[in-house]
Structure formats: C-alpha cells, structure tokens
Amino acid sequence: MKKRLSLLASMAALAAAFAALLLPTAAQAHRSWLLPSGTVFSGQEPWVAVDAAVSNDIFYFEHNAGNLDNLVITGPDGKPVEAQNQAKTRYRSVFDVKLDQSGTYRIALVNDSVFASYKVGNETKRVRGTVESLRQEIPKDAQDLRVTRSQTRTETFVTRGKPGGDSLKPTGRGIELVAVTHPNDLFAGETATFRFVDDGKPAAGYGVTVILGGKRYQDKLTELNLDTDKNGEIKVKWPQAGMYWLEVEPARPARPQGAPQAGGPGMPAAPGAQGGPMGPAGTLDKPTRRAGYSLTLEVLPQ
Amino acid sequence: MKISYTSYGSVRGLGRVLPWAAPLTVAFAPAAVFAADLSLTVEVPRLDVAEYHRPYMAIWVEKADQSFAGNLAVWYDLKMRNKEGTKWLKDMRSWWRKSGRELDMPVDGISGATRAPGVHTVSFGNNSALKALPAGEYQLVIEAAREVGGRELLRLPFAWPGKAGAKATSSEARGQTELGAVSLTVQP
Known about the structure:
The complex is a heterodimer. Chain A has one domain (about 30-250, about 285-300). Chain A is about 10% helix and about 40% strand. Chain A is built from 3 helices and 18 strands. In chain A, strands 2, 5, 8, 9, 10, 14, 15, 17 and 18 form a 9-stranded mixed sheet that branches. In chain A, strands 1, 3, 4, 6 and 7 form a 5-stranded antiparallel sheet that branches. In chain A, strands 11, 12, 13 and 16 form a 4-stranded antiparallel sheet that branches. The longest helix of chain A is centred in the first third of the chain and has 11 residues, at about 1-10. The radius of gyration of chain A is 20 Å and the shape is globular. In chain A, about 40% of the residues are buried. Residues about 1-25 and about 260-275 of chain A have low confidence and may be disordered. By secondary structure, chain B is mainly beta. In chain B, about 15% of the residues lie in helices and about 40% in strands. Chain B is built from 3 helices and 11 strands. In chain B, strands 6-5-4-8-9 form a 5-stranded mixed sheet. In chain B, strand 8 (about 135-145) and strand 9 form a beta hairpin. The radius of gyration of chain B is 16 Å and the shape is globular. Residues about 5-30 of chain B have low confidence and may be disordered. The interface of A and B includes residues 42, 159, 163, 300 and 302 of A. Chain A: Keywords: Signal. Chain A: This is DUF4198 domain-containing protein.
C-alpha cells in the first residue's frame, strides 16, 4: 500500500506532456475530441474549420486545448494533408483544412508512444520514445522498470462530394474504425453499423459509448452504451440529428478473486493491459498497453 | 415570418399552360418514341424576411420505395465566379445524398438559374431520364433550401407515362415555408 501511495505521488509529479498522455484514460471525465464545422461539403474549394479540445462535457471548451503535435490528416488519395492556420488558445486548438479533392478526409490526433519509469539507486527516472530508443536509453542495471505503450486516436471524418477514398483504410495500429456504414452518411432514424479493429484485428467485446452533444440544452444526457460483437461490430440507431461523440475502450480483463484493486479513484486500470499501473509492470519486450479511440460523428436530419 | 403569394399565374390555371406546352415539347423532340409530358407548376413564396436569397431547388423522380430514379432540374446560383454557387448544393440534403454528391455541376439539361418568388411552370417532356423510365408509379420530389433560411421537401405521386389517349392527370401539394403550391400534370 505504501508503495502504491508513493507511486501515485510520483505520478502526480509527472511532467505536463507526460500527464497529458495519461489523461484520457486516467480521468474518465476528460474527453478528447475534434469538432469540425461541418462534415458534408460541396463546391469547388470548401474549407473545414476544426476545434480540438479535452473537456469534461462534450463539445464545450472548458478544460484543455487539444495537442496538435500529433495531428495527422489523410486525404481521399491516402496522402497526408497539411493543416492550415493552426493556433492554440486557452481552452481549444484550432486549424483549417482545405478540401481540394473529392472524397473523404480523415482528421486525427494520433498518439502512439512508449514510456518507462525505472530506478537508479533511489532516483526515479522517466523516459518516453519508441521501444528502440528506450532500449538504448535505459541502463542495464535499472530497477523497478515499468514500460507502458500508449495508443490513442481522436478523430473525425469530413467529405467533399461523394463519400469514399483511401483515407478510410485502417493503418493497423491501435483502435480504428472500419467503415461499414460510411461515417459521413448518417441520418436520424437510420441504423449505422461500425466495425472496430485493434492493431488490425477485430475489437471483439470492447465497450462503446455514444453521446449526443449539446447537453446544455437538454436536461437528460443522451447516451448509448454498447459492446462490440465477435466481429468488433456495433449497430447504432440514431435517435436524433446532431453531433455525436463516440468512444471505444478495450474490455477490462477480469481480475482474479481477491487480487488487489488495480484502479483507485482517478487511476483506473489501464484498459486492455495485463493489470493496471499497479499490476505486473510492463517490459520493453512486452509493455503494459493503454489504448483508446474517440470519434466525432454528425447525424443529419432526414 | 409572413408568407404572401404573388397574384399572377394562378396555380389552378394549368389548363392555360398545357395547351401550348405540350405541342412545344413535341416540336423540339421529334425523335421521341412517345409524346408524354410531365409539367410542374411551382410557387416560390415571397418571404418577408430581413435577408432574402432565392431558394436553391432540386426536382427529381423517385420510385415508389423512394429510391432515386432521375434528375429533372437543379436550380442554383450558376453565375457566381469559380462555380462558387455549388458550395450550397449540399443544403438540399436529401437530393445531395441521393444524387447531388455524385454529380459534377453544372449538368446539361438539368442545371438552371434560381427562380424569383412567383409561379413557375416547367415542362420535363424532353428529359432523358424521364424518357428512359419504365412505365410505373413514381413520385416527383421537390426540395428547396435557402441560404440563411430553411429547407422543405414535397413529394407528388404520378403514373408514368400514363395510358395513351387518356386524359391528363394531376396531383397537388402545398408547402409550409420554403415552397408554396406545387402541382404536377402528366399528359399521356
């Protein structure tokens, strides 16, 4: 218990960038999202404006600006697209994307990194990078080595003209959407089918939360909680038009009876990991894994 | 919002329009297998609003199950430089989903300029999609969307091409906001 407390204390002292990595899973209430000014576009050279933020409520700027260092935009031809007019303000980051091709653009904040903590004597060190870079960096005599791989993706899709293109192909890294129903072809009252993959394999038995934005004008939160089937699929019947936020989390492994609670307040077990931060420590060969996925979708009225 | 209608060109006055519209169609389409005509009278309401833009309008044909069967007309701001008018085509969202997003506007024989408030009659006897339709029951769909305004969609059932020698049949509908009285006549 004492060890756990001291670890919690040291976690609290982590550098801001380091802490930001942990936030989406460490604190459930904080949601990462991208909010596009629209998802369906016509015309010669439409532009989409996008907000990026981490907040408690959905689509309200009240906590932190999104980190655009990890912004990856893929055009309908599958090639990267530059974001324009990037800026970071107190509560949100903003950028524009010029849609000069027909088809679907994928706009994502992609985080895929490995971080480790270890002790040299009484001193705790923390490093971040790739498995390869950490292998070089961490001394052979390091004690209490804990290695975590974090793979999170926050994304949205926008389409000019006809939906489709190479941008929808999964990269095979982390949790991703495989479009069965196209994410820019959603209408109130209709049922959409989404398939999720994790490192390219069906994300079976994962938990999916779907929340309608605009809670400020509604007394009740419109929220759906679903589990993916063996193919990693869910079906969602859209109750009404609006902007929705969808989150996918890996199923938590069942804890053996009598095992210590891995997650305390504000420190739940790393989803999908073999135990949480307090469970078996990950190694460079087999890091503890954190994975998360969130998606912003627009559902149009009929 | 106050809606008032123009006094000229009563919607009921179809009889006055058709006698000259039908022969005109025949004259311009001598190769047509049949001379059936589909004519539509649509009222663009005069709206008393602070900022008025003429509505974008899409007119198309659907099968009984609401699947898309062909475009008849798309009225939008054709004259803006660099085809900037196409930016708002998506606002006719039902048409955009069924057909618009597949097209590269303007499309010959379909595209046209926006219409001013008032009553307009258009004849589609020469429309190639309509000529290619197998005989059956259809719906004409008209969708209007206005910049800084609303959107409205109406459906009018019709049988095409109708029985040769039979009398003209018509159906009517009336919009609430962006569309006024709409009337469709099939002249077999």
